Amino acid sequence: IMVYDVTEPERSEFVQYVNSRDFTIDDVEADVDQVDLGPESSVYIPAADSPTGQALLVVGHEVSGTIAVYAVDAITIGD
User: Fold this and answer.
1) Region at 65 (left for phi over 0; alpha for psi -120 to 50; beta for the rest)
2) Residue by residue, what is the 3-state secondary structure of 59-74?
3) Torsion angles phi and psi, residue 64, rounded to 5
4) What is the DSSP-derived secondary structure letter of residue 51?
5) pLDDT, tens digit, for every residue of 16-70?
6) C or N terminus of the chain, fewer CB within 10 Å?
7) How far apart are CA 57 and CA 55, in angstroms?
């Protein structure tokens, strides 16, 4: 998942790359349900609708059939 700050679209900036796959697992085919493979869909849940009170990004992985949930923090990018 690549994160960009698009607060000002004409000055969009790359923020970070997030990968939840566990690369310590040697045989991903044997442990396919233990790794996140093939992110396919994502849903943003605003803080106001979140059960935790914090904005969330939920990502479904088509290959592994797993779901990853990320807390979304507001950030400020300096000039």
Assistant:
1) left
2) EEECCCCCEEEEECCC
3) -85, -20
4) T
5) 888 777 677 766 666 656 677 778 888 999 989 999 999 999 998 877 788 888 8
6) C
7) 7
